[in-house]
């Protein structure tokens, strides 16, 4: 089941269709500033929240509408003739839920007029009762990781609410004697969370009495603006549990990686405003991909980091990722580290020191020629035993060139290098120089041959990347079975992100 919404000419959204899943769980709506996140969530909340539409959405230029469909039931808000009007189908759209915004809109602002604030500032101990344990305990855990922190939290009596004709349900904590600080005077984070917890507590009581099976939707707009990162992490864990226990569908708009790092990719919706003003919705979307423009390109804000030995390895892996279309809505960083033992140790150190964001997948790809040496290394370095490296279809760049140009000449590769790379001195003369000046028995790793080739490249103003690119192209065209094996490995590893 899903709730389908179509927005036309509301604030910055000219035309957008969005489908909300109604299976219980935690869902994120993310995107850069001005991508339409807050407008989308506010529009969605109008499906059950009887908000003053003029205050929320203003007076659009021309006609505007917000249309909902759920099965055979429909509901529509339409602006025409200078006012907003609602129409509904004969079949009832049975939904429950609430909406809370971080800055301006939400239930906690129902009593923010001067008269209501004056009343709340003068509330006495006879007019309050001890707050429900659900609100007390969870407020303390989320904000301070201490379940007893708000043990002296109070809430207004229902009879007092009616007496003063208050719309909201305010909470208080004592400061001295008979004086209380009202919820409206508390910190933004306290004020926000108390209202969310109060609304969830109402849902808890209603489920204890009866459960009619209606979807219960919670919309939260950019709540990270009011909360510290540590509180956000605890809030996400709390909301996950609530979605399960209360059979709730919880959507929050955010651009915080702290909030979405533990959300499943299929539950993340990324809004991307195009040059023509239209909005593209990407789903599923991986956490680091969704926040890629908010963090520096340092390798630590990615869904997966692949550790390799050198630039050749990086180029091969990059080509496989692109050719097999493995970067679809996922953020991957390939890091060359230099030497296979260094690659394994660095991968371990990065994991152990928690440099990577939680949930980031670590993948290790080594050169094939050292495959037989890895088991012994793992035995002697037990800290690396959790790593499961795969191997490239080639040895190091230096060894590969020696194998293909000296040990067992690959005529196809030889011609490509001679025609497209070494356009100064012929490759034949460079190899003759190598045979004359170098004792082959002392160049098992091919570094001396490589030095001669690189020196020639510099003299003709080419660089290593030109050489690497041609070799990778040759490899992919002529050794498909091994390349496909690497692609299968990367596909498997990335599917677990």
Secondary-structure topology with pairs:
Layout: E1 2-10, E2 13-21, E3 25-31, H1 37-45, H2 53-57, E4 64-70, E5 73-80, E6 83-88, E7 96-101, H3 114-121, E8 128-130, H4 133-144, E9 154-156, H5 158-164, E10 171-176, E11 179-182, H6 188-209, E12 216-221, H7 229-245, E13 248-254, H8 257-260, E14 268-273, E15 279-282, H9 287-290, E16 304-308, H10 311-323, E17 332-336, H11 340-352, E18 361-366, H12 374-380, E19 390-391, H13 397-407, H14 411-420, H15 427-437, H16 447-459, H17 464-478, H18 480-495
Short description:
The chain is an alpha/beta fold and 497 residues long. 40% of the residues lie in helices and 22% in strands.
Keywords, please?
497 residues, alpha/beta, Rossmann fold, 4 domains, six-stranded mixed sheet, five-stranded antiparallel sheet, 18 helices, 19 strands, 40% helix, elongated
SS element count, helices: 18
**Biggest β-sheet strands, sense, barrel:** 6 strands, mixed
The domain tally reads: 4
Q: What Rg is obtained from the alpha carbons, in whole angstroms? A: 31 Å
Distance between the termini: 26 Å
Please tell me the overall pLDDT.
Answer: 85
Please mark out the parts with pLDDT under 50 across 5 or more consecutive residues, or reply none: none
The CATH architecture of the largest domain comes to 3-Layer(aba) Sandwich
């Amino acid at each position: 089941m899903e709730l389908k919404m179509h927005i036309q000419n509301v604030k910055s959204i000219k035309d957008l269709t969005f489908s909300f899943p109604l299976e219980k769980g935690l869902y994120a709506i993310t995107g850069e500033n001005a991508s339409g996140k807050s407008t989308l969530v506010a529009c969605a909340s109008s499906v059950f929240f009887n908000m003053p539409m003029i205050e929320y959405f203003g007076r659009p230029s021309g006609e505007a509408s917000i249309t909902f469909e759920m099965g055979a039931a429909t509901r529509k808000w339409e602006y025409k003739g200078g006012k907003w009007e609602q129409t509904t189908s004969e079949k009832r759209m049975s939904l429950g839920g609430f909406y809370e915004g971080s800055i301006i809109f939400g239930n906690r602002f129902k009593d923010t007029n001067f008269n209501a604030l004056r009343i709340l500032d003068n509330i006495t101990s006879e007019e309050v009762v001890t707050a429900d344990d659900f609100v007390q305990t969870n407020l303390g855990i989320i904000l301070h990781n201490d379940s007893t922190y708000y043990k002296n939290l109070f809430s207004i009596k229902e009879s007092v609410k009616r007496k003063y004709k208050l719309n909201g349900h305010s909470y208080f904590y004592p400061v001295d004697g008979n004086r209380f600080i009202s919820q409206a005077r508390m910190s933004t984070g306290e004020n926000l969370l108390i209202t969310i917890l109060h609304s969830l507590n109402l849902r808890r009581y209603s489920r204890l009495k009866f459960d009619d099976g209606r979807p219960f939707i919670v919309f939260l707009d950019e709540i990270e603006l009011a909360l510290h990162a540590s509180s956000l992490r605890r809030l996400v864990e709390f909301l996950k549990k609530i979605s399960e226990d209360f059979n709730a569908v919880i959507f929050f708009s955010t651009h915080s990686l702290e909030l979405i790092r533990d959300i499943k990719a299929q539950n993340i919706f990324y809004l991307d405003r195009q040059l023509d003003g239209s909005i593209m919705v990407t789903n599923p979307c991986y956490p680091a991909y969704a926040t890629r423009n908010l963090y520096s390109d340092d390798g630590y804000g990615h869904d997966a980091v692949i550790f390799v030995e050198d630039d050749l390895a990086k180029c091969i892996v990059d080509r496989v990722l692109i050719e097999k279309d493995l970067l679809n809505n996922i953020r991957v960083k390939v890091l060359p580290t230099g030497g296979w033992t260094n690659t394994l140790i660095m991968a371990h150190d990065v994991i152990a020191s928690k440099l990577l964001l939680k949930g980031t997948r670590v993948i290790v790809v080594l050169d094939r020629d050292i495959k037989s040496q890895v088991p012994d290394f793992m035995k002697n370095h037990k800290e690396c035993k959790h790593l499961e490296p795969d191997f490239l279809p080639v040895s190091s760049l230096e060894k590969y060139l020696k194998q293909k140009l000296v040990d067992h000449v690959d005529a196809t590769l030889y011609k490509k290098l001679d025609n497209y790379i070494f356009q100064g001195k012929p490759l034949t003369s460079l190899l003759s120089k190598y045979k004359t000046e170098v004792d082959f028995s002392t160049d098992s790793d091919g570094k001396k041959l490589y030095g001669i080739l690189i020196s020639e490249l510099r003299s003709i103003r080419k660089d290593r990347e030109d050489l690497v690119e041609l070799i990778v192209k040759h490899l992919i065209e002529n050794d498909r079975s091994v390349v496909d094996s690497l692609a299968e490995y990367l596909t498997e590893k990335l599917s677990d992100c």
